[in-house]
Design brief:
GO terms for molecular function: nucleotide binding; transferase activity, transferring phosphorus-containing groups. This is Fucose-1-phosphate guanylyltransferase. The chain is 30% helix and 23% strand. The chain is an alpha/beta fold and 579 residues long. The chain folds into two domains: 343 residues, no CATH class; 213 residues, no CATH class. The strands form six sheets. Strands 1, 2, 3, 4, 6, 7, 8, 9, 10 and 11 form a ten-stranded mixed sheet that branches. It has an eight-stranded mixed sheet with strand order 13-15-18-21-24-25-28-29. A four-stranded parallel sheet has the order 14-16-19-22.
Length: 579
């Protein structure tokens, strides 16, 4: 991105943050903000935890007042994907608001799922992930609301659909606006390199519609491609050439990729009819691939048989896709080209670390800090991030690491490229490089207990084997699981996997000790991690109870975890005022 475009993006982003700041804790006027903010949840337990956190955020005046916040959970049973969540959310909105729904501006943020690629966000949810800016400190919820703060006033009643693990930044000139006023679907589009298009949705634009050189333009889309190959993009006419705000070299090839989309209430009615026709869902529907591929004058039914990008193929998926296609076919797909924009995905540990500690562009655009709302009297380590934490002056935090909602005692240290979340790191303890450590509060045998999970930053928690006998294919910090067990003097046959016995992975491996307090929980788990990394032995005390990350979430004590955060908040506030 050239310097001028970069400067404009930074200025526009800071202005959006300023606008949301002015609304936090203030009663909003009609038409000034969203009428309803909907957050989707995977199940009833996640729904209750989201509602509790939204209530607390409202009490702390972190959100605009007078806005209706709703959390809708997916129905029990098979996973239904964000497309299924969209349909059920519409049904619940319709049940609550009836006819008046057609006069409301709604934002629907998909936040269901258990964040297995960023487990520090699993217990409280990705939508409540903290960012090092703002006071009170921003979470993803406020960041999403800030980036779209200008949309409600330029939008006909309808629904804006977005996800909880990405951020879209854009700038437009003062005489331009992003308007959602057309029938059907209207999607935001961002100029992206071709390789980005292979993992996103890509828009095929009408070549006959004259392109302007403005920062924003609305055009019609002939067809939507879902995670296409390079050849597919070229053959479909999706590849553009020329000057876009994102690319400084004129003539460079790019494609327009997807992020967020809007639909009006006539379209919402069509989607409600679709749910009635489909009945209870038994497979995952993609709110992007399965809805948008049905749109545009050049859409074909071919995609309905392509299950290459589907995580779990169900026999009914093709039939359901075909019903969606026939119902939505002919619905307009308009695209708002945001020519000076950026799309950031923050859904994995490596993305999280990069964007919060190394990404010079995003840090400048959002004004991210090295230390946000923390007591940290140490000299600043460049390229690390500390949020809502209390650190002894003698502590050190390595470059590329994030420490959040934690306490670090005297002479404690965190290596480089690590995540320490919700932990109490005792005096003199050293977290190694590239480590993930996260303490959770759980209910265990009617008592409040603590479990600290640990992984390597690049470990794949979702990779599964079909039996415990194949556990060595599972790697913890690049070490086979049976070898890890030998370092802790645990027999292979003693290892338990929670949940589905035919799917054994790091997520459901019962590896993590249950302890009576937060500080001992951390030190016990740290010794286990250090034994694996050094090749030494660290036998666990007899009768130590072990839990999996999966079990920790099922028995989490959210109230206690939030209470610990409150204590940190009070501690930091009091000590800052007294200093």
């Amino acid at each position: 991105m050239n310097q001028d475009s970069s400067r404009k993006l930074q200025t526009a982003t800071r202005e959006k943050l300023r606008k949301l700041n002015s609304l936090r804790g203030r009663q909003v006027q009609p038409g000034e903000f969203w009428d309803v903010v909907v957050v989707s949840a995977a199940d009833r337990s996640q729904k209750e935890s989201y509602e509790l956190q939204i209530r607390e955020k409202t009490d702390r005046k972190e959100l605009p007042l007078g806005v209706q916040f709703k959390v809708f959970s997916d129905p029990p049973g098979p996973k239904i994907g964000n497309g299924g969540s969209t349909l059920y959310a519409l049904q619940q909105l319709n049940d609550i608001y009836g006819e008046s729904l057609s006069r409301l501006r709604v934002i629907l943020i998909h936040a269901g799922g258990f964040s297995q690629r960023l487990p520090s966000a699993s217990a409280l949810g990705k939508i409540f992930m903290a960012f090092p800016l703002g006071e009170p400190i921003y979470q993803m919820l406020e960041l999403k609301l800030a980036m779209y703060v200008d949309f409600p006033s330029q939008m006909k009643p309808g629904v804006l659909v977005t996800c909880a693990d990405d951020i879209e930044l854009y700038s437009i000139s003062e005489d331009e606006s992003v308007q959602f006023d057309k029938p059907g679907f209207t999607a935001l589009a961002h100029p992206s390199p071709l390789h980005v298009g292979t993992t996103h949705g890509v828009f095929v634009l009408d070549p006959h519609e004259k392109s302007s050189s403005s920062d924003v333009e609305t055009t019609s889309c002939l067809r939507f491609l879902h995670k296409p190959s390079l050849n597919k993009m070229r053959d479909s006419g999706a590849v553009c050439k020329g000057q876009s705000g994102l690319f400084s070299v004129s003539g460079e090839e790019f494609v327009y990729t997807d992020s967020t989309y809007y639909f009006d209430f006539d379209t919402a009615k069509s989607l409600l009819n679709l749910l009635n026709e489909l009945g209870p869902l038994d497979c995952e529907i993609d709110a992007y691939g399965d809805f948008l591929q049905a749109l545009g004058s050049k859409a074909t039914i071919d995609y309905t048989n392509n299950t290459a990008n589907v995580t779990k193929e169900e026999s009914s998926l093709v039939e359901i896709r075909q019903k969606i296609f026939h119902l939505l076919k002919g619905t307009p797909l308009n695209v708002i080209l945001l020519n000076n924009s950026k799309f950031y995905h923050i859904g994995t540990t490596s993305e999280y670390l990069f964007h919060l500690t190394e990404d010079v562009a995003l840090r400048a655009e959002l004004g991210l800090l090295n230390s946000a709302f923390s007591l940290r009297e140490t000299s600043e380590t460049p390229g690390c991030c500390v949020m809502c934490s209390v650190l002894d002056p003698s502590c050190s935090v390595g470059a590329g690491s994030v420490v959040e909602f934690s306490r670090l005692g005297e002479e404690a240290s965190v290596g480089s490229g690590s995540i320490v979340s919700g932990c109490w790191v005792g005096p003199g303890l050293s977290v190694p490089d590239g480590a993930f450590m996260h303490s959770l509060c759980v209910n265990h045998q009617d008592k409040i207990r603590f479990v600290t999970v640990f992984f390597g930053i690049n470990d794949n928690l979702k990779h599964s084997v079909d039996a415990p006998a194949s556990m060595d294919e599972l790697k913890l910090c690049s070490v086979g699981l049976s070898q890890c067990l030998s370092h802790w003097e645990i027999k292979n046959e003693a290892l338990r996997f929670s949940g589905d016995a035919s799917s054994c992975n790091l997520w459901n491996a019962c590896l993590f000790p249950v302890c009576s307090d937060q500080q001992s929980s951390f030190s016990v788990s740290l010794k286990m991690l250090q034994a694996v990394l050094s090749g030494s032995t660290n036998p666990l005390p007899k009768d130590t109870k072990l839990m999996s990350m999966q079990e920790c979430l099922q028995s989490k004590n959210l109230e206690e975890m939030l209470k610990l955060r409150k204590v940190l908040y009070t501690d930091i506030t009091q000590r800052r005022f007294s200093s």
